[in-house]
Amino acid sequence: MRKFYLLLLLFSFIISCKEETLLEIDENISNPQANYNFGNATQKSFQGVVLDINGNPVSGATVTIGTGTVTTNFKGLFVFKNASVKENFAHVKVTKAGYVNASRVLVPTNGMNRVNIMMIPATTTSTVAAGSTSTVSLPNGTKVKFDGSFKDASGNVYSGSVSVALFSLASSNPYLNELMPGSFLAANSGGNARVMETFGMLHVQLTGSSGQNLQIANGHTAEITVPVDASQNSSSPNTIPLWSYNEETGMWNEEGSATKVGNTYVGTVSHFSWWNCDAQFEQATMKVTVKNSAGVALPNIKVTLKRASQTYETNGISDNAGMVSGIVPAGEVLTLKVYDVCNNAIYTSSVGPFATGSTTTIPDIIVNPSASMNYIIQGNLKTCANANVTDGYVTLRNVAGSNYFNYLSVPVSSTGNFTFNTYACVANPQFIYEGFDMTNVQTTGEITFTATANTVNLGNITVCNSVSEFISYKIDSQPVTYVIGTFNAQWSGLSPMPAAPNIPSKQLIINSQNPSGPSFGMKQNNMMGVPASFTTDYFFGISNTDIMPVNSNLVVNISSFGAVGDYIDFTVNGTYTNTSGSHTLTVTGHVKRDF
Predict the structure, then answer these.
(1) What whole-number distance in Å separates Cα of residue 497 and Cα of residue 503?
(2) pTM for the whole thing?
(3) What is the pLDDT of residue 25?
């Protein structure tokens, strides 16, 4: 299975770039030059969502382009309008404590660009000792062999324990584009811009006993073993270039090669971040707009490309103006297909070949999805004072959707109006929408409705729910439940409270205060008033279920514990058992401390 990736359309932040076509994204960083045509400086709009590997929103993540930053909201969403980027290059970077740094590179369109990002938890796979040879492995055959020599960020020799976080990313992973950093844009050893085809990726993070970042010591190397996906085994070359990802430039750089041993690639590296075993091809940029027979642009439509030798198609999603844009192989005839929401191919043609380094806008694609399954959803967002929301957006998702990124999003107009053109696989589908007022930081909350006609006017929608505090939880594969509004969060301190002698010392209590809607309650004993993790002494009341250590195996991580008036951030992950069986539970909370 060869897999090639058209850059997915994403949403983003502010980039500050030079005018030159050579790679100089950050003036303070010395970058390898690549002859990629970045284009002139321009302004584009972006909107995105950040999820973890289980599909849960990552709130409070810092999203950065250049010197501009914002944080994701309680649903992992972020928005930037008129961001300064290059015509053919936008670089989105996302960070949050406890996760591997994430990023996305895309060719921005003129519409609202969509950015989907998944963050990988920085979970320790194994702990090794400096000064001793060791091997860290994953069940799928991924391996890293260390010679025992490590250094800290200052270049000093490190001695002590080393926590190794290992993550393997196969080309067949359905969320490959969302999990991998950047894109498949690369600079080879000759400085030539290339687009790549992956045969497997690996991320390694090294941490010292005090939480400091570590690297392989100068003059030393480590051996990596990367498994080849079974369907790629017969087509994988005996030797393949190795590429490391540069978090500053947003590009992969060719560094050495790996040799095929059985159904794996084995190579030697001198530093760690992301490593990629990839074939390389000359690149070009292709743009196209998808419309229906009436000339109306079709947003959120999947457009795929396939090389003659590929097993898998690669895809992009049209923006709110119907445009798809991405980096594609040059010099080859490609098969292009357009799919409707039911995954039926409704258009097929051949495109290319494209000249190396060129940017080509091919003629508009005209498709005709089934009219009976075409839905127009429209409405108008109003503030609590009944004024039009002028800076906001609306999300919409099909209740029947299974993909983690099964949602649409459109900005409101200057008068608060919004319109979705979408599709469904069944008659009378159920949708869930949510409106956001960015100026007043408020939301409608999630609202479910049934589309009984092909055009649904939701009318005036008031956006009045505060989102300064929230708790979200997910049980098994059910949709994420959001508890928003007000909360009571109290800590009894290190000694009993005279005013509340029934509350023992060192106890944290958090309860939602909403008379209607979903509720949440928790207690954590032996809380010393500082960030900490717990595997016992907890109690939760969620979805009419009481969860205690006796019927669960949970990890409660309180990552931030602010003073009174500041915020408490926490997560809960693990399993519990009730009368209906065993269940998985994930919780994310951001609540203001009241006492």
Answers:
(1) 7
(2) 0.79
(3) 32
